[in-house]
Amino acid sequence: MEPIALSAALASFTEPWSPRIVTAVNDYDVRVAKVEGDHVWHVHDHTDEFFLVLDGELHISLREPAGERTVVLPKGSVFTVPRGIEHKPYAPAPTAILLFEPTGTLTVGDRHDDVPDHVDATTGHALR
Ligand code: NI
Questions:
Q1: pLDDT digits (tens, 9 = 90+) for 52-99
Q2: What is the pLDDT of residues 10-48, one digit of tens each?
Q3: How far does residue 128's CA lie from ligand 1's centre (Å)?
Q4: Number of CB atoms found within 10 A of residue 69's CB
Q5: Most buried pick, 1, 45, 78, 89, via CB within 10 A?
Q6: How far is the CA of 123 from the centre of ligand 1 (A)?
Q7: How far, in Å, is the centroid of ligand 1 from the Cα of 42?
Q8: Tell me, what CATH number does 58's domain have?
């Protein structure tokens, strides 16, 4: 194992909504992704999902029991989407995020709307 500069990891790929696995902690992956535009409504039935905004601004729409709302995460913000809550991330401009979730977690969750071409349905790719 060697240290990994997140800036170098982010510079190593261009595809949006296509996370790269930078390291693992016990049975969790740490992933980074470049994002822009809409992701897709989806839900993780069995795991919370942690977001850290490295650069730019991430919006996450949530369908909670009390109704729908959108949280806005400026650079440097963290937010955890609880398991079982349908959510749709969105970035108004090029943004970089870090995700922390169990190894094998699909980006589009256990249930999701139709996945558009610009969204990669993946459990994360290895860094090259
Ligand atoms: Ni999710």
A1: 999 999 999 999 999 999 999 999 999 999 999 999 999 999 999 999
A2: 999 999 999 999 999 999 999 999 999 999 999 999 999
A3: 24
A4: 10
A5: 89
A6: 11
A7: 6
A8: 2.60.120.10
